[in-house]
Amino acid sequence: MAEKEIGNERFARELEEIDDALRTAIGDFKKSEQCRQKVASTRNEMKSVAISEKSGRSWIAVVGLKNSGKTWFCKQLMKNPDVSQRLKCGQLGKDSTKTMVWVGDSFQDGIEGEKIPVKSDDMIDLGTPYIMADTPGVDDAFVSDLKVMEKIAGAPLYILMVNSETMESEKLFQFAEKLDGARIFPVCIDNEKRDLVNRGEEDLRKLEKKLARACPSADVRKPFVVPKLDSLDDTEKTEKDLQAQLVSRLGELLNLPPKDVTYRKEALLARLKREIINELKEPLNNIQPYFDELVTKETEAVSAVITELVGTDKQLEIGLRIRMRMRLADETSILFFPFGALLGLFAITTKAWDRIFLSLI
Questions:
Q1: Residues spanned by the domain of 344
Q2: Which helix (H) or strand (E) holds 145?
Q3: Pairing of the two strands 101-104 and 130-134
Q4: What pTM does this model have?
Q5: Within a 13 Å sphere around the CA of 172, how many CA atoms are in the beta-carbon half?
Q6: How many domains does the chain have?
């Protein structure tokens, strides 16, 4: 069943093996339960990838921190003002996006969240059929309900909304780790520095580098900068120009050859393994001294048992000499050694007695 939902036997088997290992090797330890929840979450993300593959529509997921302009971006792709009004803006407080909202003309079975059906003519043409997800801000839902991320994991393209105040937020890059394996298009709204477009290139390069480190298997694209519109002279004209530029960039990205879904699943699996290692690293390091002491005590106990059963090294050496002498006496033919009787007597003698008997021959 899991294989059919995920769409790949190998990934289903690997997830099952990781889950079994956590359950049997670590048991009911609290960290084990947290790690097993991550396994379940990754399994759901892979299901989302499989659903996306069958949907016949490209998924665009608009994500980011709270009040970063996600809903504003979604509205840029709406021709119908009635649909735009149904998308709640986070800056309005009580009207902020609290649940995930899908907008599009067709939704594949298995897609979860609120759905706003619209005709394709009511959405900006990007050159290929698509549906779009407007998600809650990280502070709103992702901290307490990471299941939202599971529902959009099938998106091949993520619009990562950033503003000039949160470009260096650690929470932003922790969240970006979950986008590994996909294509990421950062859109930066300049609500603090008017010169970000012209003299903020260093900030944008740092943003790209940090995103690349957070999700090494992702295709991170050059950020698109949106200046603070009310600070410009001809706001209406500038907004239309920006919309045209944004739509052009988005159309290019959406029509690039998609990566094989296996690539995204590989990235999800690799991320899961990193997360489990990080979760277990601290508790395992804490028990290492006790484990080392246990190994030492075990070695000492085994040594004591061996000494008790077979004696010390010196006792073993004497016993071995006697045994070898007895075998030599038993197995040496009289034809080759006519003094077999004397040799048998040698077996119970050592050192000085050997010399005495030899002198008598």
A1: 313-360
A2: none
A3: antiparallel
A4: 0.71
A5: 22
A6: 2
